[in-house]
Automatic annotation (TrEMBL):
CDD domains: MopB_CT_ydeP, MopB_ydeP. Residues 642-749 form the Molybdopterin dinucleotide-binding domain. This is FdhF/YdeP family oxidoreductase. Pfam families: Molybdopterin, Molydop_binding. Keywords: 4Fe-4S, Iron, Iron-sulfur, Metal-binding, Molybdenum, Oxidoreductase. Residues 113-486 form the Molybdopterin oxidoreductase domain.
Length: 759
């Protein structure tokens, strides 16, 4: 380390996460994006009972009242939307689409908010302003000329329950269940895996459980960056003496040391609290093996000393234990250690701590789901909890950290390509028309259909579809083969610029903005990671007088595409209470919806597992059988094969890049780096700061990323890390979890070689 060469933009970051650094970064975000007078008022209205929901993440607040001013990344999310910068039709007059496509998403979004509805004009290669009704009429005409199976309806998880509900209604009345959504790239393994295990695809813990737990196991998530308000919860638990065991290939600063900006003593004394009591640098994609190892040790402990498993719970509430246990016992330690990158001794420490705890919470994120075994990973976490009855009791449970602030709500109100029969029946009873039964396409399948030409039109309620998906080399050109693309968004991104034969760009109100319809100011609703549904009311003056709300845009398209529609679109948009009444009549758990969201904090949707009721096919919780540790060891433990993990930086929200720094990881002003373990660098004859080329080794296509700077980092041996979305060129489109369809964004087998020296 001492004589390591200097690499531009790479420095050691020694401070704790949070603390004064976070306050400084908050002030900078405000200064760069907003007029400073407006900013404090805006920020103080975030997550207040009468204010708007933070668009940053889906972590809940106690009584929905956060001391938001100290959440650095929440402040970035809000200021990024409430920016004073604008992208007007003049901007498009000055720039052709081909020129704009050469810019990064960072440069594009930093230009500010879209102000006018736009249509692409092929003759000039420019976007130009269009009247809303003219645009809707043309889109309606094109949709009426296509058959429903040729059209896909994408949702990104920022959309409100009201907008998402209307969007699924439009698509289903039109005749399709083609609902690719961001969840397909994110927590789909949770939505698919947990129903098989416990009967519902959602987490079971509430914030109160964190006050009563005795152990937290955190697997594959980076809350200091992605769920900063969770740090307050972890911080409290750590100070209460609760052990926090972390599994993460990278040493993430916030999980090691965190100074809570709300704790004045810590701030004044420049102190911080250690978060993780034990930190295991599991190999990328090695969690199934690690969990198998822990469970194997627990089974051994039970054989030797008894009193480890909760037999009453297992007998009364579960099934499948014997097959599960047999599968675990037959897995070899050699394979477990090779695939997980951890030793039996490491895993023994976890098993002992787990056996001692009377109430354990397991939290997890993308490090668990974004693998070709994502669903199996999720189910193994549930298995581990079931062994000691850690579901449906105080202080215990499973806690998936959702992504977008309303991705969970979107699913609840019907954004799914595989709707249940009961949901469709309920809708038919209320609306009086037939709904399509055949399952539709998810995100990857939509992209495959666009590539092979069977999908002809894509309507996106938010997001950056092509940039978020794997294999940009294929996904980008596929967008340009479509007959029609329609994007509802707040800011310009590259998916908008990959224009189809006809492309429309619709600017919408954001979460922070006042939404006035015929009946007056409207509020929308969202559901957080813990199934709490609450209202959110924007307060700011809209970025432009031409903006429309998402429900209004969806209704506009619907009226034009479905002339004989049985849905009273106009009336619904006039008063969102009417949309909520329809949700209450068609989606279980929303009785008295309008009344209940008017109480501060909202209400919790039913979660039967919290009462030890299991809505699975058999009425019991079900253990899984995972027999693939050997396969993992062979594939990912192979010589000269690295597991590529694609990562978010601290200054990024998915494909939205706020700035080019990643402070906690010591990267400043750049994103073109590959994090590598020092010993792996040495073994490959690569030096810290050398240029390398990366090539995927599991694809029929040649997927390559060249001239990336390799840097020494504290990451598990055999795993390498690069930033998303730049590294998406390396992720194969067809390398996904078979059960959930989620791409393997966090364990792509790759080779890394030194870039040839140019003469
Ligand atoms: N500020 C900010 N907030 C966000 C987002 C954002 O981009 N920026 N995105 C939102 C969205 S949509 C989502 S889904 C969430 C994402 O939040 P997270 O789930 O935290 O997602 P990531 O940052 O992609 O990766 C999480 C961690 O997984 C670790 N990891 C990678 N591979 C493995 C593995 O194989 N095993 C284990 N155990 N760990 C692994 C990585 O080192 C990283 O620390 O955050 C949401 N909130
Ligand atoms: N390699 C790799 N790829 C990944 C991931 C990864 O970890 N690695 N993570 C995956 C995950 S977890 C996710 S969730 C997806 C994210 O995929 P998406 O949800 O599709 O992408 P975002 O970057 O969140 O979308 C940003 C755009 O949303 C629009 N937007 C912002 N606010 C609003 C709003 O209020 N309304 C509307 N209509 N539009 C708005 C803006 O125009 C902005 O440009 O990416 C996935 N892709
Ligand atoms: Mo996500």
């Amino acid at each position: 380390m001492a004589n390591r060469r200097e690499v531009p933009g790479i420095r050691q970051y020694d401070a704790p996460a949070g603390g004064w650094g976070a306050l400084k970064a908050t002030a900078e975000a405000v200064r760069d994006q907003m007029a400073s007078v407006k900013a404090p008022i805006t920020l103080l209205r975030t997550n207040q009972p009468d204010g708007f929901d933070c668009p940053g993440c889906a972590w809940p607040d106690k009584e929905h009242r956060s001391t938001f001013q100290f959440c650095e990344n929440g402040a970035k999310a809000v200021t990024w939307e409430a920016t004073s910068k604008r992208v007007t039709p003049d901007f498009f007059q000055e720039n052709t689409v081909s020129q704009l496509l050469k810019k990064s998403d960072y440069e594009l979004e930093d230009r500010g908010r879209l102000t006018h509805p736009l249509v692409y004009d092929r003759a000039t290669d420019k976007f130009k302003a269009v009247a809303w009704d003219e645009a809707f009429a043309r889109i309606g005409e094109i949709l009426r000329g296509l058959s429903p199976e040729q059209v896909d309806f994408y949702t990104s998880g920022r959309a409100s329950n009201e907008a998402a509900y209307l969007f699924q209604l439009l698509a289903r009345e039109y005749g399709t269940n083609n609902f690719p959504d961001c969840s397909n790239m994110c927590h789909e393994p949770t939505s698919v895996g947990l129903p098989k295990s416990i009967g519902i695809g959602k987490g079971t813990v509430s914030l109160d459980d964190f006050d009563h737990c005795e152990l937290i196991i955190s697997i594959g998530h980076n809350p200091g960056t992605n769920h900063p308000r969770m740090m307050g919860t972890l911080h409290e638990a750590a100070r209460r003496g609760v052990p926090i065991i972390v599994f993460n290939p990278l040493r993430e600063r916030a999980l090691e040391r965190f100074a809570d900006p709300q704790n004045w003593l810590e701030m004044a004394s420049y102190g911080s609290t250690p978060i993780a009591s034990t930190y295991f640098q599991v190999a990328g994609g090695g969690d199934a093996a690690a969990l198998t190892g822990i469970i194997k040790l627990l089974l051994d402990m039970e054989d030797m000393q008894g009193n480890v498993l909760d037999h009453d719970f297992i007998n009364t509430h579960t099934e499948g234990f014997d097959a599960f246990a047999a599968g675990i016992r037959s897995t070899s330690w050699a394979d477990i250690e090779k695939a997980s990158g951890l030793t039996r001794d490491d895993l023994d420490k976890v098993a002992v701590a787990y056996a001692k705890s009377n109430a354990t919470i397991i939290t997890y994120g993308m490090g668990v789901t974004q693998h070709n075994k994502g669903t199996a990973n999720v189910r193994l976490i549930a298995d581990l909890l079931l062994l000691r009855g850690n579901i449906g009791k105080s202080g215990a449970g499973i806690c998936p950290l959702r992504g977008h602030s309303n991705v969970q709500g979107n699913r609840t109100v019907g954004i799914t390509e595989k709707p249940s029969e009961s949901f469709l029946q309920g809708m038919e009873n209320v609306f009086g028309f037939k709904l399509p039964r055949h399952h539709g396409r998810d995100a990857v399948r939509t992209m495959q259909a666009m590539i092979d030409g069977s999908s002809k039109a894509l309507l996106c309620l938010g997001g950056n579809f092509a940039v978020a998906l794997p294999d940009s080399g294929q996904s980008f050109p596929a967008m340009e083969k479509l007959d029609l693309s329609v994007h509802v968004g707040t800011k310009l991104n590259r998916s908008h610029l990959l224009v189809a034969k006809e492309t429309y760009l619709f600017p919408c109100l954001g979460r922070t903005e006042l939404d006035v319809q015929e009946s007056g100011a409207q509020s929308i609703t969202v559901e957080d990671s813990m199934s709490m549904v609450h209202a959110s009311a924007g307060k700011l003056e809209p970025a432009s007088e031409y903006l429309r709300s998402e429900p209004a845009i969806v209704a506009g398209i619907a009226q034009a595409a479905l002339p004989g529609s049985k849905v009273p679109w106009k009336e619904l948009v006039a008063d969102y209470d009417r949309i909520r009444d329809l949700i209450a009549r068609t989606v279980p758990g929303f009785d008295d919806f309008n009344k209940r969201i008017r109480s501060p904090g909202g209400f919790r949707l039913p979660l039967p597992p919290t009462e030890r009721k299991w809505p699975t096919a058999t009425g019991k919780a079900i253990f899984s059988v995972y027999g693939e540790v050997q396969e993992d060891a062979d594939l990912l433990g192979g010589e000269h094969v690295f597991r590529l993990i694609t990562l978010r930086s601290h200054d990024q929200y998915n494909t939205t890049i706020y700035a080019l720094d990643d402070r906690y990881r010591g990267v400043f002003g750049r994103r073109d780096v590959l994090f590598m373990n020092e010993d792996d660098l040495a073994a490959c004859g690569i030096e810290h700061g050398d240029l390398v080329d990366i090539e995927t080794s599991v694809s029929g296509r040649k997927l390559r990323l060249e001239k990336i700077t390799a840097i020494a980092y504290n990451i598990a041996r055999g795993s390498v890390g690069a930033y998303y979305p730049e590294a998406n060129v390396l992720v194969p489109l067809d390398y996904f979890d078979k059960e959930s369809g989620t791409p393997s964004y966090k364990s792509v087998p790759v080779q890394v070689m030194r870039h040839p020296v140019e003469n």
